[in-house]
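re: ur question from yesterday

yeah so i grabbed the chain u mentioned. its 339 aa long if i counted rite. heres the sequnce exactly as i have it in my notes:
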Amino acid sequence: MVSIIVPVYKSEKTLRRCVESLCKQAYADIEILLIVDGPPDGSGILADQLAKEDARIRVINQPNRGVSRARNRGLTEAAGEYIRFVDSDDYVLYHGLDEMVRRIEQDGSDLVIAGFDHLYFGQKIEKLPHTNACMELQASYEDLKQLYMGGFLNMPWNKLYKKELIREQFPVDLNLGEDLLFNEAYIRQTARISVLQQPVCEYIQDDRGTTLSTKKRNDKVKTALLLYEKTKAFFQNCYPDVGQFPFLADKVCTTFLDEVEGLGFAKDMTHAEKRAAVAEYAKQTRNFLQKEGIRKPELTLLDYRIIFFFLRRQQISMTLLMIRLRAMVVEIVRRGKGV
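ran it thru and got these structure tokens back, copy pasting raw so excuse formatting
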């Protein structure tokens, strides 16, 4: 049996679609655990209604404690041999779970990592891993590196886990990166990983108009540096003979650049606030590169390379100009696509 854990919070508009996609799965030996995390809307009432429609649904109520504690509660309640996490605003494809169970049993593996469809600003982007193989973890450094760089280790909802191998639950003292740390802790317990080169769910994201407060930006910088240290220790533990892992530092720089580029869309920030934010990112980037002894990170995208050129030189005005021009181009492209 597969235990599917769904945290429920402010999901009144999306929960039914999510749960119905689970109930209609080709693989039927499931239990659906709706962890109602003290929502302020009617999604808890809807969860109870859904449970009356399918005996495989179980509702578990708790005070609002956040998504990590909700998932952890699901882990303690789960009765299945396998664990699958699903977000309440996502949609699971009909054959997704069936294919994941087939692969984990066919390969004799400990984990399945699959692709997904990313619905972003109304556009569907298929995200698939680079391979469709079964990896022996100790001999698969390059494959695990590519999965990490492709973002496939970051989330829990594109994976199938064995409950017996879960030794550590989700960290509850972070609001960013906790999923990655959970996955890294789990992977350390595995010997073989199946990679499924097909989408198993639709991940829906629409962050139009959202911006980060100064505190959240500072938290994100600190978290990025913490995840860097934790992930470096993870790769060192898995591959002690490799030595250096420069791609991890590249990932930190791209994280900073993503945040800098996002300032171009922050309509509720003044020019002075944006300038101060860019200056802080420039300082953090310089300090990080100096500390790690990195002269020039590998940046694949042209816009990253252009903005990084000015950012690392503390040229704040030019950095602001570049992110403003980039934001204008992105908005033009979106309008052209009718988004």
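noticed a couple things. The chain has eleven helices and ten strands. also Confidence is low (pLDDT under 50) at residues 207-213.
anyway ttyl
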